[in-house]
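Box S2. Input/output pair 1.
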Amino acid sequence: MSTPTSNSIATKSVSTGGLDKSVAALIAGTKWDDGGGPAVTLTYSFPSGTAYFKSNYGDYANTSKDGFTGQGEFYAFYALSGAEQAGIAAALGAWAAVANVSFIQVADNASVVGDLRFALTDVADNNESAHAYYPSGSPVGGDVWFKHGEWHTSSGSTLQKGSYDYLTAIHEIGHALGLEHPFEGKPKLSAAYDNYSYTVMSYKAHKGGDNYADFYPTTPMWFDILAMQELYGKASHNAGNNTYTYHSNQQYWETIYDTGGTDTIVSVGKADVAIDLVIGHWNKLGRAIDFGDGWTQAKAVMIGPDTKIENATGGDGNDKIKGNGLKNTLEGGDGHDVLRGRGGADKLSGGADNDKLNGGKGKDQYFFKEAPGHGVDTITNFQRGEKIGLDNAAFSGIGDEGRLRAKYFVTGSAAKDADDHVIYQKKSGNIYHDADGSGHAGKELFAHVDPGTKLHAGDFIVI
């Protein structure tokens, strides 16, 4: 257990030779090493009025003697509030969610302290909100100090996710675990990636901009995840079936990291969204991020490394939804939506209004769950072996679940008898439903395929 005079967890030098330069650019060169392999368990604590610090903690005059440096922060330190401590715990959890590092809170007194200690101080550079120390065996190693009077008040002392304070906490913990700024040392991160969308260790909100935004990242981002996993290994996170819900009236800036299960992204609201399930691709979900220079970023949710999301559901806007090569289930909801499955045997359902459906490669299925009259969906490149599914609660007269019986299907411009409820006009590619067959009710257009496509009763299923 660490004490006020020394850290009990050993450290280890890290070589970045052979690593991707974008990952190497974030690794400072040391990591915590408790002897259990790349994974590590660290303690943390919150100094208060009874806290004890080594008398020369941060005393530059003793650098050569004790092998550590600091700024004498404890001479003017303040304890974090309960709400701030909860925010720090959440920020620690954000790192534990992506890398194999665990955190346990302990007391902070004269005999026991955390490997990582968190407090406020008046001893800080005028231009900083906080600072932290890289992993080391000295008392300062892993400690994080926030500037009292600035960081302490900018978000009402609550460390709400999306605030600059919460981002600062994630950033400083990154240092305490062994990450550095992307613009320091060699190699440096490319200017295209030196911003918050790719690393919380940056000083820039977006390429070429300053660090102001009206909402900040709430998770480690793409290169942060890869760098921290290089140090401590990959975490198992959200390995079950998970649903990630995004509301159109809220803001999000995050990287989804998920290691298993059958997962779904759901959009709620009337705004137009763009969902792309491919790893490393951005998604337009929620309100845009506004920056100080007038620039905005609409796509602020990324699919993280090794993260396989199988399904997506749009909201009430005109949505664009793309799959990722897995067996995706894509649902448009209301609005004029565009769904594209890419590879894999996908299931596409446009929902209400006029939608465009393209399953891509693979034997796909196209489902119609809304009654005719709620829109016309266009299916592009329908292939042999694919299926069009009709809900018998919405399409009357088509029989029970299973394969559509031949007597309910007819090719031509109109029903020929009372059983002809699904009518396909090959020349135009139009597909109609006729509730009473050759009766007087009339047919309703509900779908369209490429003109000349060969369709038979066996291409339809009843759901």
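Box S3. Input/output pair 2.
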Amino acid sequence: GEKTRMARLAAEDNAFIRPSRAAGTVGGVGGKTREAMLLCEAAGFDVVLVETVGIGQSETAVCDMTDFFLALMLPGAGDELQGIKKGLVELADMIAVNKADGDNLKRAKAAAAEYNAALHILAPRSEHWFPPVLTYSALTGDGIEALWEKILAHRTAMIACGDFETRRRQQQVKWMYTILEDRLHARLRSDPVIRAKVKQTEAAVANGRMTPAVAADTITALLER
């Protein structure tokens, strides 16, 4: 479906689009997204865009694998409250409100003003960058060039202050823990003895015969064997 929505981009000789299945994973991105990003970088692509499946409870995990986190919002659709509630505002390096055209222009500007006000009462991710709030129109293209200019400005600022390399190192550590968690979960699912014991432990917790802490210790002991 991605290439259907990106007909112009898909036709570009210097662009490559790789759909990633996100079902069954958290964070709004596919399980092998990091590997795909590394492959694209190794192939010489200097810009890698990661599109998530939408706003969700774990959607913000994508910020742990990217240099710039852009939150795209719609005007007058309740996204203002949802963005604040789900932590997108705190994590976004920039917020962009779409559909700033025609009858929606005033609503888009109003939504942008609300986000901007919210940002001023929240601590930014970096002391060297305050997240801007812009409006744009995917229909007409108005404002998109300004978005790109802000992205480049962010990169320049982060490299100058050292935050760019710091974030890259943090991403590697986060990746390590993600792989570790995935492998532990895989072992819990694949080992029939452990899987059966986990089911028994779940039932004991649900019936009040075992506390969650004791249950966790029991399962951890199984993994240590």
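Caption for Box S3: Residues 163-190 form the longest helix (28 residues). The radius of gyration is 21 Å.
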